[in-house]
């Protein structure tokens, strides 16, 4: 059994064999820094393929809307809930996916998500009514997609630093590439085999994700993280407080509020744009070309924006604001676009405008919260972005009431413009809020044993004339939005009067 286990490729780094040395006497292996390349590019490719298949499937789900309307004879708003529920669970399950990824590993969770999608898609192909699709496609496929999508984003953020925007842009372009390919693929399969057989074919394609999931090799052994706070395993309550503490950060609150506004209408074009074009008298096969142009420009723009945003001369916040404003402006122009050519131009410019905000969502979340809080912060961001599942049903309800999708697009555009002004509050909040207030607890770290003990109350007094930062380090994320007011800081050893009696332990304020 031992020979068989060691021969398995991509097996876990940590050992499950009997311990020859007691755990308390063993020293943990050194924590590996992000390689900024190497195997990270393999993970980028794997995560790209995940997005091509998983997010591409959701982004092209609009081609199924016409078939479902004909099959079940329900209203546009009710039918749109099939895809919207799925979108919502991708976001809502973000924190759970992040936690499970940290606990069990990215490889296991991503493969589990792929298997759930395969099973749920087959079940959806046998659905007798919309209620069944709400469960099979909406709930099961949504949860599986969250498990499959989230680990890749976390892995990329751990493997890259200076090239993080480029790597993220490549990964996020997978969703656009998937929409580009799968829109035509599903339309072809629906015409030849029907929508039920088309879902079964897609279920078979998901085996690609199961295979690529084995490439998600952890950067460090399971159980070892780069954050001191994450190593406080003996205090679950403290970890819970650390997680909820993000909601006391003003910058994080502004960030999630702005993204909640701009993501409300994110999925409206992917669900209703084809139907909107058909209502204007454009043939359905020509209408799907609009989605092809949208996917093509979005895929290329996300890679280009990823490369640009890695430059030190670029302010990522301004790029994000311009992107959000551009998307809002395009949505508000929909009522005056009636011809096929104008809608093609809309798709081309929407793919370009949306790229900046889409790829910078995980990058700026990492910049604001740091590596140690990225899994939790990213999960919370996805939960807030679950508001995007309300956009398609709202646009469908507007169409049922008015006979047009115009008002739905205009409302979504207005919310994007409002989000642009909310994002402008982040620099103000950064100037008025000291990032050093992110301290959580005072601890003593023994370098030889890696033991962590909390400080006593009788700390040496801090002289009023000397800044506390010079004697104690206020720990915060080293990536600080490139703000000129706040510079990078490293923990320093306490040099006070009791430094000689401190022994081998480093006294650091977190």
* CA-based shape: globular
Q: What level of helicity do the residues show?
A: 55-70%
How many helices? The count is: 20
Measured distance between first and last alpha carbons: 45 Å
| Poorly predicted runs | 1-18, 225-242, 435-441, 445-450, 461-510
Looking at the overall shape, the CATH architecture of the largest domain is Up-down Bundle
Element string (H = helix, E = strand)? HHHHHHHHHHHHHHHHHHHHEEE
Number of strands: 3
Topology:
Layout: H1 2-6, H2 39-59, H3 62-72, H4 76-92, H5 94-104, H6 106-124, H7 130-159, H8 164-193, H9 195-205, H10 207-212, H11 236-244, H12 250-262, H13 268-279, H14 284-308, H15 316-332, H16 340-369, H17 374-384, H18 391-402, H19 406-423, H20 425-432, E1 442-446, E2 452-454, E3 505-509
Antiparallel strand pairs: 1-2, 1-3
Helix pairs in contact: 2-7, 2-8, 3-4, 3-8, 3-13, 4-7, 4-17, 4-18, 5-6, 5-7, 5-17, 6-7, 6-9, 7-8, 8-9, 8-14, 8-16, 12-16, 12-19, 12-20, 13-14, 13-18, 14-16, 15-16, 15-19, 16-17, 18-19
Structure commentary:
This protein is mostly helical. The protein folds into 2 domains: 39-432, Growth Hormone, Chain: A; 437-510, no CATH class. It contains 20 helices and 3 strands. The protein has helices at 2-6, 39-59, 62-72, 76-92, 94-104, 106-124, 130-159, 164-193, 195-205, 207-212, 236-244, 250-262, 268-279, 284-308, 316-332, 340-369, 374-384, 391-402, 406-423, 425-432; strands at residues 442-446, 452-454, 505-509. The chain is globular, with a radius of gyration of 25 Å. Mean pLDDT is 75; it is low at 1-18, 225-242, 435-441, 445-450 and 461-510.
């Amino acid at each position: 059994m031992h020979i068989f286990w060691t021969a398995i490729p991509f097996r876990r780094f940590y050992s499950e064999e009997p311990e020859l040395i007691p755990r308390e006497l063993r020293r943990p292996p050194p924590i590996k820094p992000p390689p900024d390349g190497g195997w990270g590019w393999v993970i980028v490719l794997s995560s790209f393929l995940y997005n091509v298949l998983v997010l591409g499937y959701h982004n092209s789900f609009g081609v199924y809307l016409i078939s479902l309307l004909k099959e079940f004879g329900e209203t546009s708003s009710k039918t749109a809930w099939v895809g919207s529920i799925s979108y919502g669970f991708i976001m809502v399950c973000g924190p759970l996916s992040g936690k499970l990824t940290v606990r069990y590993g990215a490889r296991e969770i991503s493969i589990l998500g792929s298997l759930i999608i395969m099973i749920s898609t087959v079940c959806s192909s046998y659905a007798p009514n919309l209620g069944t699709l709400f469960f099979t496609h909406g709930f099961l496929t949504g949860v599986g997609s969250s498990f499959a999508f989230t680990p890749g984003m976390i892995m990329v953020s751990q493997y890259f630093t200076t090239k993080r925007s480029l790597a993220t842009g490549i990964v996020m372009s997978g969703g656009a590439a998937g929409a580009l390919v799968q829109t035509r693929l599903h339309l072809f399969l629906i015409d030849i085999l029907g929508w039920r057989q088309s879902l079964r074919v897609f279920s078979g394609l998901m085996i690609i994700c199961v295979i690529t999931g084995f490439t998600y090799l952890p950067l460090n052994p399971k159980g070892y993280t780069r954050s001191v706070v994450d190593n406080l395993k003996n205090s679950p309550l403290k970890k819970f407080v650390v997680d909820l503490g993000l909601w006391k950060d003003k910058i994080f609150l502004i960030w999630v509020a702005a993204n909640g506004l701009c993501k409300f209408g994110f999925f409206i074009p992917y669900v209703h744009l084809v139907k909107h074009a058909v209502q204007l008298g454009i043939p359905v096969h020509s209408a799907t070309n609009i989605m092809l142009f949208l996917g093509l420009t979005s895929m290329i723009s996300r890679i280009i924006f990823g490369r640009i945003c890695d430059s030190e001369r670029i302010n990522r916040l301004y790029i994000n604001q311009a992107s959000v404003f551009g998307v809002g402006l395009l949505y508000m122009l929909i009522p005056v676009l009636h011809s096929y050519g104008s809608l093609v131009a809309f798709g081309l410019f929407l793919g370009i405008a949306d790229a900046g905000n889409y790829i910078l969502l995980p990058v700026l979340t990492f910049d604001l919260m740091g590596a140690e809080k990225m899994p939790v912060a990213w999960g919370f961001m996805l939960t807030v972005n679950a508001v995007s599942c309300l956009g398609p049903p709202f646009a469908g309800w507007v169409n049922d009431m008015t006979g047009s999708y115009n008002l739905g697009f205009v409302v979504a555009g207005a919310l994007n413009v409002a989000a642009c002004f909310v994002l402008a509050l982040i620099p103000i909040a950064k100037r008025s809020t000291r990032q050093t207030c992110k301290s959580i607890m005072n601890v003593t770290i023994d370098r030889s044993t890696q033991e962590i003990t909390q400080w006593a109350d009788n700390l040496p007094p801090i002289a009023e004339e000397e800044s506390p930062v010079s004697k104690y380090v206020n720990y915060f994320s080293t990536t600080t939005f490139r703000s000129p007011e706040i510079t990078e800081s490293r923990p320093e050893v306490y040099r006070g009067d009791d430094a000689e009696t401190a022994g081998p332990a480093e006294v650091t304020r977190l």
